[in-house]
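Re: export button greyed out
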Amino acid sequence: MREIAYEDLVKSVKAMVMHTASHLPEDALKAIEEAYNNEESEVAKSVLKQILDNAHLASSEDRPLCQDTGLAVYFVKVGEDVKVVGGSIRDAINQATEEAYKDGYLRASTCECFDRHNLKDEVGYNLPAVIHFDIVEGDKIEIEYAAKGGGSENVSRATVLAPAQGKEGIKNFVKQVISDAGPNPCPPIIVGVGIGGTFEVAAKSSKHALFREAGTPNENPVLDEFEKELKKELNNLGIGAMGMGGTQTVLAVHIEKNPCHIASLPVSVNVQCHSSRHSHITL
Amino acid sequence: MAEYHLTTPLSDEDVSKLKAGDIVYLNSTIYTARDAAHKRLVDLIDNGKELPFDLQGSVIYFVGPTPPKPGEPIGSAGPTTSYRMDSYSPILISHGQKGMIGKGKRNEAVKEACKKYKAVYFGATGGAGALIAKAIKEAEVIAYPELGPEAIRKLKVEEFPVTVINDTYGNDLYEIGRAKYEVKE
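Workaround output, generated via the alternate export path:
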């Protein structure tokens, strides 16, 4: 059994969280640059220019890209042959999250649902982190991380279609969600689509789809084709950067698909704003 | 698409010349408020009490900034989504507020209030919080410090960049811009 020290895990995760808040990853940067080059609207182009200037400023001065520094969301794959010594993996991730948000001057956005008060003085600064665990073969711990903002989360939707509605039904649902969202989720956006599984599996898949590098092809050629088709039709909506009208609304569409019940066709759409702050480490 | 440099407080004349799509650079004082602060302001008006700042000609920025680093006035400070303020804004506008800065769609009641009382809704670029913070020279919490990022702050701004989304004539840049680039199948 391979061993990893609790403190090492905290240190690695904390460094990743702090870095991600101010450094837009290469894939997002490239996708926005491409949108800038292809945009026909002068107004939208000037917005995209601001977004790029912001990204360069944030990384050079180590400032948060956006004031919504998000809820900390993790997908964690734990190998069956690795053990964390000195504490639990969950505690290590929560501790790293709290320290990173505090030391990095990031905003604590976690609150109680009904009276909306910030929970930082009770459960910890921007805690609890949202952690999805999976157990896999091997002796590694793989952690994918994203700082997920509220504006794009607010327009995300899930449904269960009738199987007869098929791909056409899925397409219409995705288009409706993005059309209704309009300027609100800070376009240009990345659209995560989870298809199949049960209701919650579709939702989780749509979230995980956002962690894929933008611009990389889907491994499944049928889904790859579907992603391209959806991207084109979503861009035809004309929403544009920050909703001011334009040809570049969607940076990428990412689909994850799971087997589902013979009676159901669950679909979930999770939207990611242009500030696609994500990263991953393997320990 | 025209470009203007305006100084707050804004007058009816200032806002009447603005059209959806115009670029505006704001100077002098603006105030921050999000959902919780808006609720408190409207409660004060309902109870006939005095507000923590003068609403006449005021511009309110919908923002909850990150904590400032030592020696800096403010952290990253981009706009938050505005529809959450839709139920409060018309009341504030009817009491003299002239400008709102945020991102995203407003409802009909807000657009109507902009027409009736002469006020404008400005859009700032969401997710450009580091860049926008450069236009904020001073920040002071003037009310509700217990709300943390949602406290009301008085900001001194220089050439704060915004775009007119809803003007005093009922125009909406989100509708105009989208209609122009929508490809019908």
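Chain A has eight helices and ten strands. The button fix ships in the next patch.
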